[in-house]
Write a structure and sequence with these properties.
- The protein has one domain: Jelly Rolls (Sandwich), CATH 2.60.120.
- The strands form 2 sheets. Strands 2, 4, 5, 6 and 8 form a 5-stranded antiparallel sheet that branches. A 4-stranded antiparallel sheet has the order 1-9-3-7, with no helix packed on it.
- The protein is mainly beta.
Length: 112
């Protein structure tokens, strides 16, 4: 089993985090920071090509609704959706951070 931890940062006033390189991991966990101001986290997934990452929102299959972690709160740990597994990268989308930069801790775990 292999585990990796990365800090994903949403800058003050921003809504998009830095990204997690998800290749090779089968499950993910997210720990929200104490200064998180939102109640929901959605995701963008990325595929690399020509040295850049193309980002697209991750939607629920068959709908236009964004896939999200159900209602979240500050200073809590959550299992991220399994839908992130097939993608090379993902990043978090949050409400605008009004209380300074927010650092989320993300864990990736592989079964091998």
């Amino acid at each position: 089993m292999n585990t990796r931890r990365e800090n994903l940062v949403v800058a003050s006033g921003a809504t998009v985090s830095t990204h997690f390189s998800a290749g090779g991991f089968s499950s993910f966990g997210i720990v929200t920071p104490a200064n998180f101001v939102g109640t929901v986290i959605t995701f963008e997934v990325g595929i690399s090509g020509s040295g850049t990452i193309a980002w697209t929102p991750l939607n629920n299959l068959g709908t236009a609704a964004l896939l999200n972690v159900a209602t979240v709160a500050a200073s809590k740990a959550y299992k991220a959706p399994d839908d992130l597994r097939p993608f090379e990268y993902f990043r978090l989308i949050t409400p605008a951070q009004t209380s300074g930069a927010a650092t989320f801790v993300v864990f990736g775990k592989s079964e091998a």
